[in-house]
Amino acid sequence: MTPLPDRLVYFIGGRDLEPGEKEAIYESQICKCDRIVDILDDLPKQGPFWVHFDTDYINPIDAPAMRYPAVGGPSAQLIKSDLKALAGCINILGLSVSAWAPHLDVDARTARTCWNVIDADL
Fold this sequence. Notes:
By secondary structure, the chain is of the alpha/beta class.
């Protein structure tokens, strides 16, 4: 296996990076932006693509049960809309999802929000 070139990696919406992560990402050729719709026109048209979705990208107002919540971020509805736009323009091979913290999700609100975001008629 060969590593994927940095220029084919898109880092979207990171807000709370660990020491060293920020420097590594910003010193690379990884494409960085705040929202999926910011890069739709720049995506290579060939595919297929793999999408990884960290649920803590969702604003903690909508999905509070995160182990390391970060202030800000787009709403769940906005992310759902962005994912739907992404699925409409590229061939998505698969989607991996990082989990929220179920032990903090006492009312299952975060679980419902996260499942709703990725169930965007993709």
